[in-house]
Amino acid sequence: MHFISQELEDYIEQHSEKEPELLAALNKETYQKILLPRMLSGHFQGRVLSMLAKLIRPLNILEIGTYTGYSALCLCEGMQENGTLHTIDIKEELIDFQRKHFDKSPWGKQIVQHLGEAVDIIPKLEVKFDLVFIDADKENYINYFNIILPKMNKGGIILSDNVLWSGKVLEPIHPNDISTKILVEYNALLKNDLRVETVLLPIRDGLTVSRVL
Ligand SMILES: C[S@@+](CC[C@H](N)C(=O)[O-])C[C@H]1O[C@@H](n2cnc3c(N)ncnc32)[C@H](O)[C@@H]1O
């Protein structure tokens, strides 16, 4: 869903940083070869993620929902030189595609791919994170927040994607629509939880920035 006109979206993209060549190629190949290419963050949100990471300068990053690796590479742009990005996805068929593109980047050796259910993998990671990007199944957003929080460094940032869910968070919720129900609860939780301070940014499908206190 577009919250603003296509003309304004184009203007915003034209007046933001260019998409790096490596990412433009990954974007193109995802659209050519992989199912559901709209899941990829894309040029503008990718530049936002890169800028946030450059401001935060994280040592350890966790991404939940790798897909084809686009947002992982954007986040790596701001990672400290000796940093590590852990990224989790449940789809085995994406692993080689991700690795091919990771290895074309300067951060290939610093990116650790994890295959499986994120709720099972996160508790096993013995790492404290400075930056987390939640971008997988919406039904688990509250679970992700609860298992991540004890693994965050103070001042660390949790980014949550798709929190406006094409505007469905404002509409009556169909009883079978678990994703919208959880997202509405999740947005309220982030707003009210005294362990984080939160701003919800109307970027693409909604991107929340929560700072761990
Ligand atoms: C929206 S896509 C991620 C897009 C990517 N972050 C980007 O911006 O380019 C969501 C991904 O989460 C993965 N996923 C869904 N449920 C999952 C789960 N329970 N555990 C781990 N990964 C999951 C999907 O396979 C999919 O690749």
Automatic annotation (TrEMBL):
SUPFAM superfamilies: S-adenosyl-L-methionine-dependent methyltransferases (SSF53335). GO terms for molecular function: O-methyltransferase activity; S-adenosylmethionine-dependent methyltransferase activity. The keyword Membrane does not apply. Pfam families: Methyltransf_3. Keywords: Methyltransferase, S-adenosyl-L-methionine, Transferase. InterPro entries: Cation-dep_OMT, SAM-dependent_MTases_sf, SAM_O-MeTrfase. One of its GO terms (biological process) is methylation. The keyword Methyltransferase applies. This is Predicted O-methyltransferase YrrM. The lineage of its organism: Bacteria, Pseudomonadati, Bacteroidota, Flavobacteriia, Flavobacteriales.
